[in-house]
Amino acid sequence: MPVILAELGWMGMGLVDTLMVAPLGPAAIAATAVGNSLHLGFAIFGMGLLLGLDTLVAQAYGAGERALCRRWLTTGLRLALVTTVPMMVLLGGLWWLSPSMGFHPETQPLLQGYLGILILSTPALLVYAALRRYLQSTSHVTVVMVTLVTANLVNFVANWAFINGHLGLPALGVTGAAWATLTARMYMVAVLALTVWLSDRQVPAATATTPPAPMHRLLSLGLPAASTVTAEVGIFSLLTALAGQLAPVSTAAHQIALNMAAMVFMVHLGLASAGAIRVGHAIGARNFTDARHAGWTVIVMSVSLSIVTGAVFLRYPEVLIGVYTTEAGVVQLASQLLAIAALFQIFDGLQGVTTGTLRGLGDTRTAMVSNLTAFWLIGAPVSYGLCFGLGWGAPGLWWGLLLGLVLTSIVLLSVWTRTVRQRTLSGD
Predict the structure, then answer these.
(1) Which of 142, 184, 205, 323 meets the CB 3.0–4.6 Å disulfide criterion with 155?
(2) 3-state secondary structure string across the chain
(3) Model confidence, pTM
(4) Over the stretch 25-83, which tens digit does the pLDDT of each residue have?
(5) Distance of CA 396 to CAs 190, 240, 258, 290, 400, Å?
């Protein structure tokens, strides 16, 4: 539950930004949506490189090797800092090219101002990712949850001050939301770093007999994991960018529906993280029965949740969308998108949790191959063709996304089932 609440807290920061710029109009919603998607589409690769810490720290922790856990944290922090430089260069180039990317004229100037400030939060985001993975894998999950919840309060107050010009500050509008996000991310790094220092004072220092924590081993797990999350987040970023070429009403409807679907996915992502950690602990302790049980538990929980949330999306779309806006055109289109989202709930959650359980086993390559194939080689062309070729607009983007989710969830569940069956038969 703490990991799930932490994921919801992470998603809540984007939700707060969207809600607080909503009074500025559909173009403001579109600018923050596209800006967040473009930034995360690149930064998520750097964060994904650190997902290997889930496997390596959790398995070391399950084996009782706390000094090795600390060595992996040090390696992870080094990787985060090294990755920051190329990330900033790439994002700076993206910001420079954004005026030529075909965004709607009402959205473009707001987008460039928002994205330029958001890029400055990249170093904090990567260091936060390393600290969080370490704390979660060593069972310090409550502090991660508390940090994310309180960061939302920091973000809310900062948004209130920067967007509207309170506390003696100038009213910065959409750009103010980016300054608020930067402030909240720096706060998260400070809290988690302090927690690591306080909690690890009693951990024995590494000795000559402590196994090494080489960068190449972290990268061998992190690169496929980074490719996986980049492929998945990147497809959402691509669809949001394509929606940004439509009228602001379509972009706003797309972002509102995507925010709600993503909020639910944060629960599945929390289950995936918990599953990866529990499976990793069990593998480290050489107890494959517990690893198998942990994996199937999160899969059943994910499917059960998806059935409930899908029904809510179908039954109460106007109520949910009304939290964001009452503009008739946006409500009508967002309701259509939520109906499609209700259909892909099961597949979205399933591919998320099976990616986590396989990561706990040390398999990050299967998810990479399946996501790249299903989302980019199949789903993305279908989305583009339905949206612009057949003129379906934003719903066409979502139907292509649904196809990619169905395909990748089938592949990942099949691999997980086969792997646990083989290890059971072999007596592991």
Answers:
(1) 184
(2) CHHHHHHHHHHHHHHHHHHHHHHHCHHHHHHHHHHHHHHHHHHHHHHHHCCHHHHHHHHHHHCCCHHHHHHHHHHHHHHHHHHHHHHHHHHHHHHHHHHHCCCCCCCHHHHHHHHHHHHHHHHHHHHHHHHHHHHHHCCCCHHHHHHHHHHHHHHHHHHHHHHHCCCCCCCCCHHHHHHHHHHHHHHHHHHHHHHHHHHCCCCCCCCCCCCCCCHHHHHHHHHHHHHHHHHHHHHHHHHHHHHCCCCHHHHHHHHHHHHHHHHHHHHHHHHHHHHHHHHHHHHHCCCHHHHHHHHHHHHHHHHHHHHHHHHHHHHCHHHHHCCCCCCHHHHHHHHHHHHHHHHHHHHHHHHHHHHHHHHHHCCCHHHHHHHHHHHHHHHHHHHHHHHHHCCCCHHHHHHHHHHHHHHHHHHHHHHHHHHHHHHHHHCC
(3) 0.75
(4) 777 877 887 787 778 778 888 888 888 888 888 888 887 788 888 888 888 999 999 98
(5) 43, 12, 14, 42, 7
> Does pLDDT of 339 surpass 60?
yes
Rounded distance between C-alpha atoms, residue 256 and residue 19, angstroms:
10
316 is written with which tokens? Answer: 């109460």
- Give the residue from 247, 238, 253 showing the smallest Cα distance to 104: 247
Token code pair at residue 170: 């100038």
Using an 8 Å Cβ cutoff, are 413 and 354 in contact?
Answer: yes
Say what the pLDDT of residue 34 is: 78
Q: Which two tokens stand for residue 371?
A: 């996501």
Buried-exposed string 213-226: b where 16+ CB fall within 10 A, e elsewhere: beeeebeebbbbbb
Angle among Cα 409, 413, 414 to the nearest 5 degrees reads: 115
